[in-house]
TrEMBL record:
<keyword id="KW-0597">Phosphoprotein</keyword>
<keyword id="KW-0238">DNA-binding</keyword>
<dbReference type="GO" id="GO:0000976">
    <property type="term" value="F:transcription cis-regulatory region binding"/>
</dbReference>
<dbReference type="GO" id="GO:0000156">
    <property type="term" value="F:phosphorelay response regulator activity"/>
</dbReference>
<dbReference type="InterPro" id="IPR001867">
    <property type="entry name" value="OmpR/PhoB-type_DNA-bd"/>
</dbReference>
<feature type="DNA-binding region" description="OmpR/PhoB-type">
    <location>
        <begin position="136"/>
        <end position="235"/>
    </location>
</feature>
<dbReference type="GO" id="GO:0032993">
    <property type="term" value="C:protein-DNA complex"/>
</dbReference>
<keyword id="KW-0804">Transcription</keyword>
<dbReference type="GO" id="GO:0005829">
    <property type="term" value="C:cytosol"/>
</dbReference>
<feature type="modified residue" description="4-aspartylphosphate">
    <location>
        <position position="56"/>
    </location>
</feature>
<dbReference type="GO" id="GO:0045893">
    <property type="term" value="P:positive regulation of DNA-templated transcription"/>
</dbReference>
<dbReference type="InterPro" id="IPR039420">
    <property type="entry name" value="WalR-like"/>
</dbReference>
<dbReference type="InterPro" id="IPR036388">
    <property type="entry name" value="WH-like_DNA-bd_sf"/>
</dbReference>
<protein>
    <submittedName>
        <fullName>Response regulator transcription factor</fullName>
    </submittedName>
</protein>
<dbReference type="Pfam" id="PF00486">
    <property type="entry name" value="Trans_reg_C"/>
</dbReference>
<keyword id="KW-0902">Two-component regulatory system</keyword>
<dbReference type="InterPro" id="IPR011006">
    <property type="entry name" value="CheY-like_superfamily"/>
</dbReference>
Amino acid sequence: MEPTKHTIALVDDDRNILASVQMTLEAEGFNVRTYTDGESALHGLMSRPVDLAVLDIKMPRMDGMELLQRLRARSQLPVIFLSSKDEEVDQLMGLRLGADDYITKPFSQRLLLERIRALLRRNEVNRVEAGGPAAGGSLVRGDLSLDETRHQCLWRGKDIQLTVTEFLLVKALAARPGLVKSRDQLIDAAYGENIYVDDRTIDSHIKRVRKKFRQVDEDFNQIETLYGIGYRYKED
């Protein structure tokens, strides 16, 4: 039996980009669905789920920011954000809204393909990994419980909805409480080696993770910042 193909959603109002990227991805064995505006994409993604979405920022009817926000209210679908080089604020905002990664335009299609494969691989490992820091793919640190096989994060019994990247960051920190993790180490843990990600990307993810935990526990302070060094998970 042939392995199931992954399905990728491309959302961009530039039809030339859509056609070009679709051709590349299909040549690499992916199923591809394309949308030219955020509104039709939201309807399509909710009615016909995909494995990963690539979203542009500036689109008619509903821009990428609003689309991402609406998706995150309903789904932890892996998302790669597209932005122009002069849209640094949008890049950071996209990460804070829950994007797993971003790529700046103009971009190499090989780079996009590499990022798509890396994110799908991280998502797949996170879902099916039976081993890990503890038997059964689970990790418990005081009030924190991580279940890798279910992609579930609990804090004091309350569910915390984390994206793939956020889950891997929490796992990397909680696996070695008290140990300082540099941003480079966290990038390797969340994105894989040999993938360049700006340090501020990690900072944005950590801010979003803290916000999610504080929505269920306003006193949450387990993830500490060591300025100029990195982050660590407080020992109980």
